[in-house]
Amino acid sequence: MRVLILGGDGYLGWPTAMNFAAAGHEVCVVDNYLRRQIAEATDSEALIATPSLSERARVFHAVSGHTIKVHIADLADPGVMFDIVREFGPETIIHYAEQPSAPYSMRGFREARETFNNNLNVTFNCIHAVKDIVPDCHIVKLGTMGEYGTPNIDIEEGWLEVEHKGRKDTFLFPRAAGSLYHTTKVMDTDLLWFYVRTFGLRVTDLMQGPVYGLSTDEADLDPRLCPNFHYDDIFGTLVNRFLVQAVAGIPLTVYGAGGQIRGYLNLRDTLQCVGLAASNPAKRGELRIFNQLTETFSVNQAADRIKKVGDEMGLNVTIKSIPNPRKEKENHYYNPAHSGLMELGLKPHYMTDDVITAMLKRVMENKDRIVAGRIMPRVKWS
Amino acid sequence: MRVLILGGDGYLGWPTAMNFAAAGHEVCVVDNYLRRQIAEATDSEALIATPSLSERARVFHAVSGHTIKVHIADLADPGVMFDIVREFGPETIIHYAEQPSAPYSMRGFREARETFNNNLNVTFNCIHAVKDIVPDCHIVKLGTMGEYGTPNIDIEEGWLEVEHKGRKDTFLFPRAAGSLYHTTKVMDTDLLWFYVRTFGLRVTDLMQGPVYGLSTDEADLDPRLCPNFHYDDIFGTLVNRFLVQAVAGIPLTVYGAGGQIRGYLNLRDTLQCVGLAASNPAKRGELRIFNQLTETFSVNQAADRIKKVGDEMGLNVTIKSIPNPRKEKENHYYNPAHSGLMELGLKPHYMTDDVITAMLKRVMENKDRIVAGRIMPRVKWS
């Protein structure tokens, strides 16, 4: 299968590229290094420096024999998108090419505009390139569980049957996201749904929860193949940040009451989910939506679990609540369905004590690289 | 009240500007002439040529004594938006500044991209300019009934209370639009709702049906003040197109089965609705949504009503079904609520025989200007 990965330099894009190549697929990655530029500009660089995408592809080829084709180019430019799609002729596109930081998108007008235009234009160009050049290509789009927000009803997988005044219809599950970044993904969903039903595109939209971890079969082959492990307030996801705080002897900073519940998954399960979606494509004219998470826990529960394991390893972990820089409910109902990917064959890697121990050990090996000033929130929602 | 009208050169923007000025408000209009350029490029010019916006403002001042300030500038450029908002300090912004043609948005990639970037960037810039400069300003945004599509349940005014598995919540009413143009308005709504609930903006979103007519108190003062009356396949709305076909002796072209029902309103009622919304502003942190229509009828019913009146005037009107260039349901349930604006005081001007007669007479005075080649659909959805 020819697999084109948009945003192939990212925390998820790069491990996904290696994973598809290792499975024998023909893989091409494209990235504009926007995340690298933002990380440098905001002093938010990853714990372990990662070589350029071309260099990582060379290292991966040397250790595995597999080839990954690399383009450094801006997919928000339609000429770039159309040329690459025409040249490579993908059967599957995995679309990760979005500015992924909620705090960055809320930092100021310039950052908001950059996020807005990058994310929407890449999705728009991708849709049109597929429609016009490879209409049978399956688009696997990374959405986010954050699109749904925290409604007071069970979160179904993408769709909701509504009965109203004695009549029924099925609609996209209501969305109400908590940042501009998340809102751009809501808007992506609207756009994909319009083009799917109007032109018969085939799309899988993966509503993913926050991912944690830094180990995959391919990444573990060589330290230079490590995913970008961010622990800063801009790109760091909750669990990864807590792991670094635990190792650095900094209290785990809980935003507000800590009752915020989200659905999480291990990086290894992101690879499984994207692989399962790609090998079981959506039908023509289908917008198939999966909720991509394996377990739910609150911020307080995450902190407690990491503290327990960290303490057993002698880290003496403390937890501290700080004022919430975000605007979000700190205590709420949360019950998302997530059976679709299990039915396709997902075998979850839960966040067990062993998994936490292994992650803490990897971070401890890199303890000297931790920059404490990158951890506390620097962006407030209002 | 200082009223800033974005898209003040349009079919609705210009009569709105005159109406607010005549009511004693301080009015500033901005337009980038995008519709004029598209009309020229696609041979879709209005029945009655309209002078430039500056010229229209001069004529209006001469006949009424009222002043309308004019900027010809591109609001998709954030510098333009921020400068104008800073300089004028609006208390109300009426936002019409979107590429409004569904067929144009579906014509090809270039036209789709132009629509997408213009519409979303103007809304984005407007939101940020208000948030940063005049946070108490009331944004009156023109949405469209087309955002909802044709669901199988009653269409409520913007919001829907959902009961699901024994729990309840209220969400934006589900949206599923029929063109890229309409989808950009769905995306506008998502964006407005995010910024309203995060930053306490005050927004009224008017979900307007297709408008017809060419007479308003101010427009009738001088023929040069006439709204842009389009009858072409690009900008012409259904009723206006049928009026011109009836006068030109061309069959009224019904797309497909003609059972498509929409909610319509008279141009005079658009002015009333926008005026009522502006003088009864939404609260801080409120996204208030009204369905802006006064009556519903199907395409066949519209054709029959115009044929009946036209025949009485001796026009010998015929009706002909042609293949539907759009992708839409041709027979469907349609029951939209629209009591909110009535409760604020809207006094509807329904499409009576007298109203149709008056419109046909105005078109007959301009019969020589009709270009028949502009009427049949030139854009197909797929």
Distance N terminus to C terminus of chain A? Answer: 46 Å
Uncertain regions spanning at least 5 consecutive residues of chain A: none
Query: If helices are DSSP runs of H or I spanning 4 or more residues, what is the number of helices of chain A?
Result: 12
Mean pLDDT of chain A: 97
Descriptive notes:
Two copies of one chain form a homodimer. Chain A has 382 residues and is α/β, with parallel strands linked by helices. Chain A has one domain: Rossmann fold (3-Layer(aba) Sandwich). Helix content of chain A is 38%, strand content 19%. Chain A has twelve helices and 14 strands. In chain A, the strands form four sheets. Chain A has a seven-stranded parallel β-sheet, sandwiched between helices. The first copy, chain A, has a three-stranded mixed β-sheet with strand order 9-11-13. In chain A, strands 6-7 form a two-stranded antiparallel sheet. The longest helix of chain A has 25 residues, at 109-133. The mean pLDDT of chain A is 97. The interface between A and B is large, with 43 and 43 residues.
Salient structural properties:
homodimer, alpha/beta, Rossmann fold, 14 strands, globular
Summarize, please.
Chain A has 382 residues and is α/β, with parallel strands linked by helices. The first copy, chain A, has helices spanning 13-22, 34-41, 53-64, 78-88, 102-105, 109-133, 180-199, 238-248, 267-279, 299-312, 340-344, 353-365; strands at 2-6, 26-31, 68-72, 92-95, 138-144, 159-164, 167-172, 202-208, 211-212, 252-255, 261-266, 287-292, 295-298, 319-322.
